[in-house]
Amino acid sequence: MNSTYVAQLVHEERAGRLRAEADADRLARIARRAARRAAKRSAGRRSTWAIRHLPRRHAV
């Protein structure tokens, strides 16, 4: 095998791995952002629900 050919194969394999890692990082970042948004929305709903459903304090 030609050493240039082997070097090209190694380079392509490494480039493919780096692309796959970058894609995985991007997907993880998107998932974290979506989870934060969902948690924020959920927390907002929960607190609003709690405020509406807590027993009221009445003056005695």
Q: Your description of this structure?
A:
It is a single chain. The protein has one helix at residues 3-53. It is mainly alpha-helical and 60 residues long.
Please identify the structural class as seen in this structure: mainly alpha
- How much helicity do the residues have? over 70%
Mean pLDDT across residues: 83
Characterize the largest beta sheet: strand count, sense, and whether it forms a barrel.
Answer: none
Broad shape: rod-shaped
Low-confidence stretches: none
Order of helices and strands: H
Number of helices: 1
Q: Whole-Å distance between the termini?
A: 94 Å
* Strand element count: 0
State Rg.
26 Å
Strand content: under 5%
